[in-house]
Amino acid sequence: MIPAGKRYEHDKIMIYDQVRSDYINSYFNTGDMMVYDSILKLLDFADLDVLKIANPTEADIARYNAIFDYVILRASNFIHEYMRWEKAEWVLGQLKIPVYAIGVGAQAEARRKVELSDESKRIWSLIAERSRAIGVRGAFSAEVLADNGIKNVEVVGCPSLFRNRDRDLKLALKAPADNKRIAFSLRRETSHYYAADTKAFTRMQRELLLRVSDTYDTTVTIHGEPEEKAFFAKDEAAIGQATERLRKAEWFTPENEARLTDIYRSRLFLNDRVEDYDTMIRKHDFAIGYRVHGVLPALANRVPGVVVSYDTRSSELAETFSIPTYSAEAILEQPLEKVLDPGQFDPFKKNFGSNYDRFKGLLDRCAIPNRM
């Protein structure tokens, strides 16, 4: 239900087939592919299909009930005031098979009261009735559902941390001075749903990006914004248009445009296939990220990483998994080497096994065949 990307080789995900120029010019969050790919790697399944919620028919419902054993809702930010479910309520009401949501989360710019729509309340009630529990990524998401009448909830985190199915995960920690290659996950686009002060968010992220790239051999991972994709694709016509939009958004300013342009022309990374992110991140010593799905897969691949917190999603997952987290201001106020301190990962290491078991435990209690 609500997949993100095209499946190949059983449990691998890549971008949908489309004209390359259309892909470059549109926003598509590669983090959604990471989540989709990760949950497939944890499940033990023979085959799958997409549950239609846009234009379902009675014949579709009959086929789902006759052929399939369960439905999985992809883990993502589906708990918020503005979620639109198309015809999912009708579909879920007709299904006779279990429906599971494992790793879903609430989205807000700050920890606050979130009043879901009546439609969303009915959807989450239907899902709760059809499974042992809804697996959410953290305490805030559990709190939001509880406030909206959904009590059948367990905190399990996100599948992306466990994508390699390694309960004995050991981070490749180094002394701060030995970290040379840094992956910086960029989230330039934002809105008041993600950051309370979007101008400060932009300014601080740019300052942090420039400081990291000036200090380390930095790869800037991009995750969907069209302007960055234009530079990555080296499409000069698109780059010209992107540059104008970046100036208008005040990301490129007279003071920093030359430095940012150099970074954009030589240090960007974009993955069309999720497995390419795994390959790239393993070549780095450390990850610093505005994208939780830049940091979580780094940790899954034994690369230590810290989250730059700015909204409930990033802080919630960091809290659930004991991942070191900093505000941009806190990083900029101290030497960068302090942010690379290996000692800060002691809580993550201590809790990883129990976090792994907790995620697997919900899959087992829901009778979802898995490979964890």
Automatic annotation (TrEMBL):
Keywords: Transferase
GO molecular function: transferase activity
InterPro entries (UniProt xref): Polysacch_pyruvyl_Trfase
A Pfam family recorded for this sequence: PS_pyruv_trans
Domain Polysaccharide pyruvyl transferase: 29-311
Protein name listed in UniProt: Polysaccharide pyruvyl transferase family protein
Source species of the chain: Rhodoplanes tepidamans
